[in-house]
Each structure stands twice: as C-alpha cells, then as structure tokens.
Amino acid sequence: MRSVVIASLASSACVAPLQLSSGLAVSGGSVNPILEATARMQEPVWIDRPQHEALWLGPTGSVELSPSDQKAFVGAELLRSRLRNPRSPQRTFDAFWIRPEIGWSSSTSGLQFYGGSVGIMRLVRGVPLTVAARGGSFRSGPDAGFYGTLTVGVVLSSPLYWMQ
Predict the structure, then answer these.
(1) Cα 115–Cα 42–Cα 139 angle in degrees, nearest 5
(2) Which band of pLDDT confidence, cut at 50, 70 and 90, is reported for residue 88?
(3) In the chain, where are the structural domains located?
(4) Using the 8-state DSSP alphabet, how is residue 108 labeled?
C-alpha cells in the first residue's frame, strides 16, 4: 500500500503544488528531525474573483523521512487562498489549510496513524513559505501514542491558484 501512496505522490507532484519542509517530530518522549514532501491535487469549490480568494478541496499526501523511519500520510484537504495586491509589485499570497489524515509507518504494518494537520502558506519577499503542524496518534510501533510534528518549508511549484 505504501508504494501506491508514494507513486501517487510522485505522479501528482508534476501537476500539483509541491512543498518541502523540515522540522521536528515528537513521539513517545523523543524528538527527531524530519524532512517532509507534500503534494496536492485540488479543485476550486468556491471562487471570488474580484476579491482574489478561493476555497479548494482535494486529496493531499505527505511523505516524511527521519533518521529511523519513513511515514506516509494522506487526507482530504480544505484550503483557503487569498491573493492581495494582485497588480502590485508588493503582491502577497496567503493560504490556510486543514486536513484530517490517516497514515502508515515503515516500522509497522497496516494503517496505524489517525489525526490531522493544519498549516499556512505565505509569500514573503517573493518566496512562498509554509509552516505546518500535525497531531494524532499511532496505534502501535515505536511511535505508539501521541505523534506530533512542526515543520517549516518552501513551496517549490507554482500553483495555479496563486494566479486567481
């Protein structure tokens, strides 16, 4: 099942916003560094063209790598985006998302994680940055119990919703 998730993330990365983040994962009293890649495939469900705002819905997946483990998370994401000063050199972009998630870990078999994530994207000096938090629990394995992450990163691709 993990190979299906990774293959779908790789294929969707060509057509969807891709972000890379690094940060920390907290579980079972330990703190580990992580690197995370997230890909989205979203469709607008509401657009306000005069205000340059939109609401997006679609599947999103993340792959998380740490020194001791690899994890995959998938879920339906609801994202609200807004472009400010669209015709100005000082234009800015922000987005907020919320996503319920399920996940897998390479150190366990089967579906193990239940939780969710929230995050923001913001255009800062022309660079699209992101900050995200994930919380939930793993049923078994070395990360059994509460599992949380905090990541900071950059959005690598140019999502079309920035042009709204």
Answers:
(1) 15
(2) confident
(3) 2-163
(4) S
Hey, what amino acid is at 10? A
CATH (residue range 2-163)? 2.40.160.20
Extract the tokens encoding 89.
């050199």
> What are the tokens at 81?
């985006």
Structure tokens at 94: 């922000």
* For residues 62-90, average pLDDT: 89
Q: Is 153 exposed, middle or buried (0-12, 13-18, 19+ CB in 10 A)?
A: buried
Residue in 133, 123, 155, 134 with CA at minimum distance from that of residue 39: 155
Residue found under tokens 């239940």: 114
The answer to whether residues 138 and 27 touch, using CB atoms and an 8 Å cutoff, is yes
5: left (phi over 0), alpha (psi -120 to 50) or beta: alpha
> Cα separation of 109 and 121, whole Å?
33
Phi/psi for 16 (5° steps) reads: -125, 160
Can you read off the two tokens belonging to residue 133? 């938090």
| Contacts of 15 by beta carbon, 8 Å cutoff, 6+ apart | 41
Rounded to 5 degrees, what are φ and ψ at 163? -90, 5
Residue 48 or 131, more confident: 131
